[in-house]
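go over this:
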Amino acid sequence: MSETQVEEPVAEVDAPDGDTPDAPDEDTESKAGTSGRIQLPDGIVSPITALNHLKRKRLAPADHPPQRMYGYVKNPGKEDPFPVKHYDADGKTFDEPQVDDRGHTITRPGVKIGQVVDWWGRAGARQKAREEKKAEAAKAKAAKEEEKARKAAAAGLTDEEGGTESGQVEAGAEEYVDAGAEAE
């Protein structure tokens, strides 16, 4: 601090009606609990709690990052989606996160541990299906390229059969080019 600056004590501000400025609304506290988070219904846990369960049962690697669980929540997949639902403070269930008019998320993701364990167990089948789909796409691409090469070769044979090679210009085309050059 420089000599010209003087630190002044911070004055405490009393909130009206005896409320403290940081106190949660009574309505919010009853719906969200003391932690400020929306309380999940009985039998529903957070994705991180489900991951911890998988780790304790040695179904998931101990170093599996918790952020990946929220990646599964955000992008559950199409073929065998991650079994997540989103719950609001009133206990309503949604398939997608809900946001208010200011863009704030008003739901909390929750899962049933049994469903997550089953989903986790199918990871090998999902990986195999992805690999098969990728192999099919590669096979289709190779077939398409082979067909394209075959057509190009067939077009080359047709030119040779007609008496011209790819690098030669037909006589009529040559005259047309010369006539255009003379006109300029």
User: Anything to note?
Assistant: Residues 123-161 form the longest helix (39 residues).
